[in-house]
Design goal:
By secondary structure, the chain is of the alpha/beta class. The chain has helices at residues 6-15, 56-71, 80-96, 98-109, 113-135, 170-183, 198-210, 224-232, 245-257, 282-294, 314-326, 346-362, 393-396, 412-420, 435-444, 480-484; strands at 22-24, 27-29, 36-40, 47-52, 141-143, 149-157, 160-164, 187-191, 217-219, 238-242, 262-266, 272-275, 306-310, 364-367, 371-372, 380-381, 384-387, 403-409, 424-425, 427-431, 449-452, 468-469, 486-494. It folds into 2 domains: 6-267, Aldehyde Dehydrogenase, Chain A, domain 1 (3-Layer(aba) Sandwich); 272-461, Aldehyde Dehydrogenase, Chain A, domain 2 (3-Layer(aba) Sandwich), CATH 3.40.309.10. It binds nicotinamide-adenine-dinucleotide (NAD). Keywords: Oxidoreductase.
Length: 496
């Protein structure tokens, strides 16, 4: 078998045919306006494709065909077993094209090929499988009612679901929306980020090949404009969004200005990772703390970007942490040995460097702080660690890059106060050997996911994922996700 080295992937990349058109009603189409935008690879700053820049006419077109498909019940009207079979076929195709889709993801978003081939694409296929396999097992309820009545409570698909998603895990985040939405019988219009549209465009063809009827799954590449138009559209029944809190707030307003579509938001985070003096294994905790912020270049909504360390173990822990951080060496993400790739684009690069500059003024730089490999034309930043006060800007705002703020605390109450003192509440972690502390602190942490003695565990679909406070509402993953894409109906049948 051929070794998949850097030159293997570079060879594959050189011969890759990249599709940049929108996918509407079962076919690839240019934007009505004919406009395109450049898709730039963060690996070297080169343009790798021209992508359809969808606007109002494309949004109207996609929503109209999605509505038509829903009204015709071409998908919603199928026995769930049939939807399951088609979705499973799609998952098989995703796995069969794993290398190609992973390569698109790496070229487009700068993610290491070792991750896109093992996490992003298999994770998306697994998500499709999981919801496919679930959908013919969930039923409704027959509820207690007057003797002359039969009372049914059922869940029905909402109709047209628009999914607007970010660039950090392009296909994976999209799958967390489209898999449950499609399994439940909805039509979907997916709007990938303008920074990472390629994998979504590619998998649309595979959806069609698997047998998803025309109009049921559509992909509209473009920037904020088509996202906004979908959120304002009166024929979109549900807008499922993953992205920044600022845009999430706008989307809620667009829903209010239009048809009160259901709005589900998965937003930003500034997650605390608390290390207590009785941490069971400082080496493991240090490696996990580094991975929590440097995996995926720190472009993680759950990034453990605030490391809260007890004063008694601070020096020992920081030594281990900086050692662990040094193992993340940014490099060409097409190299399978590289664990840290490129920052998604120049805008994000400048944003992260801006925060590092702010950090230099308000905090103590312990590690990193520089852009690397500039001659490549790509966007690379080394792992960066600051020791900082709890109220510093870098310790409060989401950076979405490889920048860690270390904050020292003196007591458990202090740690919990700092942890919860954030507008966000996506995730949190605590490291302790004491079972009582573990449970008590977990209960006090205001976050949608709490890890104890680990970080970022839980690739299983069984765990609901989402945020407290301004990290969002609703939950992706798990059977609970189906609630977002269904309406609850009470049917009362009078017998006599
Ligand atoms: P973003 O909010 O800038 O963009 C997200 C999507 O919204 C993109 O597709 C974008 O084109 C679109 N968009 C932009 N402006 C819009 C508007 N006015 N109306 C409608 N759509 C609009 O976010 P991003 O930079 O792509 O992603 C980073 C953010 O995503 C971070 O805040 C991160 O924490 C968050 N995120 C959250 C989760 C989660 O599950 N909670 C997961 C991944 C990323």
């Amino acid at each position: 078998m051929e070794q998949k080295t850097l030159s293997y992937w570079q060879g594959k990349a050189a011969s890759l045919v990249i599709e940049g058109r929108a996918f509407i009603d079962g076919a690839y189409r240019d934007a009505h306006s004919g406009r395109t935008f450049d898709c730039v690879s963060p690996i070297d700053g080169r343009t790798i494709a021209k992508v359809a820049d969808c606007g109002a006419e494309d949004v109207d077109h996609a929503v109209a065909v999605a509505r038509r498909a829903f009204d015709e019940q071409a998908w919603a009207g199928l026995n769930p077993r049939k939807r399951k079979a088609i979705l499973l076929r799609w998952a098989v195709l995703l796995r069969a094209h794993l290398d190609e889709i992973a390569l698109l993801e790496t070229l487009d978003a700068g993610k290491p090929i070792g991750d896109t081939t093992t996490v992003d694409v298999p994770g998306a296929a697994y998500c499709v499988e999981w919801f496919a396999e679930a959908i013919d097992k969930v039923g409704g309820e027959v509820v207690p009612a007057d003797h002359h009545l039969v009372g049914l409570v059922t869940r029905e698909p909402i109709g047209v679901v628009a999914a607007v998603v970010p660039w950090n895990f392009p296909i994976l985040m999209a799958s967390w929306k489209f898999a449950p939405a499609l399994a439940a019988g909805n039509s979907v219009v997916l709007k990938p980020s303008e920074k990472s549209p390629l994998s979504a465009i590619r998998i649309a063809q595979l959806a069609h090949e698997a047998g998803i009827p025309s109009g049921v799954f559509n992909v509209l590449p473009g920037g904020g404009e088509p996202g906004k138009l979908l959120a304002l559209h009166s024929d979109v029944d549900c807008l499922a969004f993953t992205g920044s809190t600022a845009v999430g707030k706008q989307i809620m307003q667009y829903a209010g200005q239009s048809n009160l579509k259901r709005v589900w938001l998965e937003l930003g985070g500034k997650s605390p990772n608390i290390v207590l003096p009785d941490c069971p294994d400082l080496d493991r905790a240090a490696k996990a703390a580094a991975s929590a912020i440097f995996y995926n270049m720190g472009e993680m909504c759950t990034a453990g970007s605030r490391l809260l360390v007890h004063r008694d173990i601070k020096d020992a822990f920081l030594e281990k942490l900086t050692d662990a951080a040094r193992s993340y060496k940014p490099g060409n993400p097409l190299d399978p040995d590289v664990s840290m790739g490129a920052i998604v684009d120049k805008v994000q690069l400048d944003r992260v460097l801006g925060y590092i500059d702010a950090g230099r003024k308000e905090a103590k730089l312990l590690l990193g702080g520089s852009r690397l490999n500039e001659a490549s034309g790509g966007y690379y930043i080394e792992p960066t660690v600051f020791e900082t006060a709890r109220d510093a800007r870098i310790a409060r705002e989401e950076i979405f890059g490889p920048v860690l703020s270390v904050i020292v605390f003196d007591s458990v109450d202090d740690a919990v106060r700092i942890a919860n003192d954030s507008e966000y509440g996506l995730a949190a972690a605590v490291w302790t050997s004491n079972l009582t502390s573990a449970h008590e602190i977990s209960r006090r942490l205001r976050a949608g996911t709490v890890w104890v003695n680990c970080y970022d565990e839980g690739g299983d679909m069984n765990f609901p994922f989402g945020g407290y406070k301004q990290s969002g509402n609703g939950r992706d993953k798990s059977l609970h996700a189906l609630e977002k894409y269904t309406e609850l109906k009470s049917t009362l049948v009078r017998l006599r």
